[in-house]
Design brief:
The protein is an alpha/beta fold. Helices cover 33% and strands 19% of the residues.
Amino acid sequence: MILQLKKNTDLKYVQAIADTYDAIIIKKDDTYVLVTPSRIKSVDEKYQLHIERTTVCESDIQLASRSYIPTTREVKIGEAIIGGKSRNCMVIIGPCGVESEEQLEQTASLINECGLKTLRAGAFKPRTSPYTFRGMALDGLKLLAKMRDKYGFSIITEVRDSTQVDDVIAYADVIQIGAKAMYDHGILDKCGKTNKPILLKRGFGATLQEFVQASEFILSGGNENVLLCERGIRTFETKSRFTLDLCGVAYLKEYTNLPIILDPSHAMGYAYGVPDLARACMAMDVEGLLIEVHPDPSVAKSDASQQLNHDQFRQLFKTLKPIASAINRTIV
């Protein structure tokens, strides 16, 4: 249950209600919002005098629920806005990992050519094997920041674990929490304390309930700028890397108020299937697509098989434009 208290409610009453109902306190300007466990459906009459609005939720999907905020939240990334009243779809491209300044310069050239605004690449890479490339770490973050300063891009990069979350928050415009880190409460708690946008990826074994509840840790920490990213879940199928859950996306659109980003690259795992899947993602009428693009995927140090080369992306991008137009979206 979410309790929006009246403006300028005395802190002693705020604390009394919170203590009585095990509520998390969120302060927004001169207003307090209390979030109780969803099993609590009502409050004592003596507290009603201090409550402006009550939202009863069926589960612990609360702040992210359309029962609480019926429209999609607006999130600003650089100069671009997604969600809210905008009909923008942010196409986010870049290599899986930062490998060199030359690689990023080539990527920057493609981003400018396409009129896009956002560069995504990993400086810290959470890998399945310890014997594979794990990123350039802080040096990678500095290279990404250099691209932002030179070209005006917004930078999205991933935090691998809570030991470098402060560095990623300091350098990035959008902090990506990857599928392997979705349950990392150290990361979730720190991301709740910043106002920078957070791109939260669904764990490949997580239910939709678990996925959105992970976002509640960030939202309840006070950060309202959360993006949900569906990137494929693990099923019995072995011919693709994962299975992109577009049925789940339909659920997220209907029941949550957070902007949605789709990642066809990680879902498919093979470059040949990414363009078709990306077109399907655009047709889902979501707020963004994340597509991995590398100047030469054959020499990529991570996820080589799923990255498009620049010519492949150019051809795909041409075909995304009419789909965006058909659903009244503007690619940014």
